[in-house]
Write a structure and sequence with these properties.
alpha/beta, five-stranded mixed beta sheet, Hect, E3 ligase catalytic domain fold, single chain
């Protein structure tokens, strides 16, 4: 009877802190190793499933989920991976699939480098120990990364993926922000217009009329891989020939963001746990605030004046 195998490869930055160009090569090495094993041991390869830059604690990995569904449907009888940690670093997930579902589905998991084989009952304790060690590793690594990032924030280094509108990352120091001249000019104009008596909606209308790109669309236009559901709508608008519109909320966000005074505010949320993607908002007493972290686009005096005007006009609108 033909032995059909699925090959599963995974690598994330949590494993080796590899540079992007090394990641693909490492995936290729896993594939080569597993293909050689399959050929030597008489397996025909049904499919290769590859997840790059996904944590072993993430059970929503796209290739992993496709593989699990194919396993449930009986499309292969064996999963080959380099070791158990490639399959998962979560002990509960390992227990659920390796000891409960896979036996029901008649699916075997082989970790060719760590000796894991679910067909070998003597192997059970090894799998349990591996599961515990793999989960501890991820938790320790998560704590270490969190501390490293916190240290950077405490030193006034920017750790975000994208610079906010009006700034760009310094190409010589990626943890520093420098003004982005075209967008910085728009930010200054917005502050001045508000001081001159323009409302949020009037400023938004004026910028739209002048065909100034809104922040999210501007970033995409600059080649930055930045998308939100809102920015996707803007892309559709452009394809339809419509001019992207500014909103009053975008204007308000710029007028209330202290980053434009040179102050960095970071560490406002944290992950619920190493296993969870959910983030929890922190009390502002826990935020990391670093003044004079980068060149200011507006002065503290102007920011305070605008903050005061926002408050007064809000109260006035409520009375009306």
């Amino acid at each position: 009877m033909e032995k059909r195998a699925a090959i599963y490869c995974r690598l994330s930055r949590e494993d080796d802190n590899l540079a992007c160009d090394e990641v693909s090569e490492s995936i290729q090495n896993q594939q080569k190793l597993l293909c050689e094993y399959a050929k030597k041991n008489g397996f025909s390869v049904y499919c290769m499933y590859v997840d790059e830059n996904y944590s072993g604690l993430d059970n929503t990995r796209p290739a992993f989920c496709r593989m699990i569904e194919d396993a449930r449907c009986g499309r292969f009888d064996t999963i080959l991976c380099k070791n158990q940690s490639r399959f998962t670093r979560d002990m509960e997930t390992a227990q659920y699939y390796l000891n409960e579902l896979f036996p029901l589905w008649h699916v075997r998991l082989i970790g060719i480098c760590d000796g894991v084989d679910t067909n070998d009952m003597k192997n059970l304790r090894l799998r349990q120990i591996n599961g515990l060690i793999n989960e501890w590793y991820s938790e320790d690594l998560s704590d270490n990364i969190r501390q490293i990032l916190r240290d950077k924030m405490m030193r006034g280094q920017f750790i975000g993926s994208f610079a906010c509108y009006g700034y760009t990352k310094d190409p010589d120091h990626l943890h520093s922000l420098i003004p982005d001249p075209p967008a910085a000019a728009v930010v200054r104009e917005i502050y001045q217009l508000y001081i001159d008596g323009f409302s949020l909606s009037k400023i938004a209308s004026l910028l739209t009329k002048k065909q100034v790109m809104p922040p999210c669309f501007y970033k995409i236009q600059q080649g930055i891989l930045f998308q939100t559901p809102f920015s996707k709508n803007k892309i559709t608008d452009e394809a339809d020939g419509k001019i992207p519109k500014w909103s009053a909320s975008s204007v308000r966000h710029i007028l209330t963001n202290p980053v434009y005074t040179g102050t960095l505010i970071q560490g406002t949320t944290k992950k619920e746990s190493a296993k969870s993607k959910k983030r929890i908002k922190l009390s502002n007493t826990e935020w990391i605030i670093y003044p004079n972290a980068h060149p200011a686009l507006i002065s503290e005096d102007i920011f305070c004046e605008v903050s005061s005007l926002l408050q007064k006009r809000r109260k006035k609108n409520k009375k009306v």
